[in-house]
Amino acid sequence: MEKDKVPQDEGITEGISREVQYAVDKDGKYIKVLSKGWEPKNIVNELAWEDIQESVDLADEKIKSGKASPVMHFMAKNQMNATLLADYIELPKWKVKRHLKPKGFKKLNQNQLENYAKVFSISIDELLNFKPE
Predict the structure, then answer these.
(1) Is there a contact between 8 and 21 (Cβ–Cβ < 8 Å)?
(2) Which of 56, 66, 71, 92 is most buried by its number of CB atoms within 10 A?
(3) How far apart are alpha carbons 23 and 85 in whole angstroms?
(4) 51-128: which CATH topology?
(5) Contacts of 94 (CB under 8 A, 6+ apart)
(6) Continuous segment of H or E residues that includes residue 73
């Protein structure tokens, strides 16, 4: 692709990020060119974020109805499943699944709360006091 034809289609990352593309300059040499985005990639990213938001909304509904703990919200928001989260927390998957339920969540000790908060990049207070909108 020629330097002046590198796509500059802004999408969901408008004003936030740019990515490096390689293009050919007037001398036929490859150079790095910053791109604001590319329409097909922007469409795929928007669809992916819609799917993520659906997962978060589903988790929030379960939390509101008393069927899930705040761990489920943050797990969905961070695009994790129980297996991946268990690996990060360094607990067996069955324990993470227990913590996804309100009864199991209430039994978390300080160390476990700290581990979840750290993995989710939130405070323990945010985890304990999370209320879905």
Answers:
(1) no
(2) 71
(3) 40
(4) 434 Repressor (Amino-terminal Domain) (1.10.260)
(5) none
(6) helix 70-77
